[in-house]
Design goal:
- Strands 2-1-3-4 form a four-stranded mixed sheet, with helices on both faces.
- It is built from 15 helices and four strands.
- Helix 7 runs antiparallel to helix 10, helix 7 runs antiparallel to helix 14 and helix 11 packs antiparallel against helix 14.
- It folds into two domains: 237 residues, no CATH class; 108 residues, 3-Layer(aba) Sandwich (abc type-2 transporter like fold), CATH 3.40.1710.
- The longest helix has 29 residues.
- By secondary structure, it is mainly α.
């Protein structure tokens, strides 16, 4: 690259910096939206389900055994007993209105069954409109009941002077996220989503804006070559993208307490590859569309929707149908989210991220090559 090429790239980049500065909406989108999204997703989105709102109908309230059983729910962080009732009509009303998620009904002979050595019935009514939450709530109940049964069995053998029968004692040890905090899982994905969306949306209108305002003809008449124009427009948005990345990392560490166990050098290198591909994709959309409205719509369709739905950001890819799983291999955010989660939580290195590095490199190379090839210095 000659000195003249560098000067031309510098001029295009400086022109784009001035254009961004004069457009407060784009500047606000680039600087404020990442912070807003991190706060909303970090604090508002949680995959942890606790404090399940529960109403109780205890038909055997006078029994000490029943009270001991209910203490297992009262002392659990996963349940919040909001009230008591004595009829099904009120239970139906509370579930239909959304006041409670679940109703626990203890029959009047509950303690009698236990004292006579029989299996005591317990009725559970759950709002199944949210199938995932309902399933988790029922699993919580099963866990509480199972623990109660184990303790009850131990007490029974102790009262008879017998040794408790041996059983399997499974002890779990969670790596990388010992508290199973969903924020640690969500925030790195939010950073990847922000960079992909902001990079795509900002650059998707940079060339289309030139066509709509009639300034592209002036650029075409200059000695600026297609690669120089693409690189010149690329540089300012690359700087903005890295600023957003730094904001995201700082907020993740300071506000949300997400640990960073990897290498910052690896983070910078792989983020550069991802940014290069995402920005090149946005410029390619802008070159093809030639209309800011069309470009922004295409950018939303090709960046935001795949990143949110098909990257593993929220929904695990292995639970998707096989056909959709195959499509996710074409979503670059899928690989960058793996990179961020590996670096933040597992302390990943280049050796463990080799596959992701290769794909991000190919993604950046193909997108940049297509952008340069597609841009033509002619009016029509």
């Amino acid at each position: 690259m000659t000195g003249q090429s560098l000067r031309r790239i510098k001029s295009i980049a400086w022109k784009e910096f001035i254009q961004i500065k004069r457009d407060p909406r784009s500047l606000g989108l680039a600087l404020a939206i990442p912070i807003f999204l991190l706060l909303i997703f970090g604090y508002g989105l949680s995959l942890d389900i606790d404090q399940v709102r529960t109403v109780v109908w205890n038909q055997d309230a006078g029994s000490e055994l029943t009270r001991d059983f209910m203490l297992n729910f009262k002392n659990s962080k996963y349940f919040k007993i909001t009230g008591y009732t004595d009829n099904y009509r009120e239970i139906e009303h509370m579930i239909n209105s959304g006041e409670v998620l679940m109703a626990l009904i203890i029959p009047k002979d509950f303690s009698h069954y236990l004292e006579s050595g029989k299996t005591a019935p317990l009725q559970l009514i759950v709002d199944g409109s949210d199938a995932n939450t309902a399933t988790i709530a029922m699993n919580y109940v099963r866990t509480v009941v199972a623990n109660y049964n184990v303790n009850l069995l131990a007490d029974t053998f102790a009262s008879l002077g017998l040794n408790r029968p041996q059983s399997v004692d499974a002890r779990s040890r969670v790596w990388f996220n010992m508290g199973l905090t969903s924020t640690w899982f969500i925030v790195p994905g939010v950073i990847a989503m922000i960079i992909m969306i902001i990079a795509g949306l900002l650059t998707s209108i940079c060339v289309a804006r030139e066509w709509e305002r009639g300034t592209m003809e002036q650029l075409i008449s200059t000695p600026v070559k297609a690669p120089e124009l693409v690189i010149g427009k690329f540089i300012p948005y690359f700087a903005i993208g890295f600023f957003d990345l730094m904001v995201g990392v700082v907020m993740a560490r300071v506000l949300f307490g997400v640990p960073f166990r990897g290498s910052y050098f690896v983070l910078i290198f792989l983020s550069s590859l991802f940014l290069t591909g995402a920005l090149s994709q946005g410029i390619l959309i802008s070159v093809v569309a030639r209309s800011q409205l069309m470009a922004s719509q295409l950018a939303t369709l090709t960046t935001m929707l795949p990143t949110v739905l098909l990257s593993g950001f929220i929904y695990p890819i292995f639970n998707m149908p096989k056909f959709i799983q195959a499509v996710t291999y074409l979503v670059p955010a899928r690989y960058y989210i793996v990179v961020l989660r590996e670096l933040f939580l597992k302390g990943g290195t280049m050796s463990t991220l080799w596959d992701e590095t290769l794909f991000l490199f190919l993604f950046a190379l193909i997108m940049f090559g297509l952008t340069v090839r597609k841009f033509k210095k002619k009016v029509a």
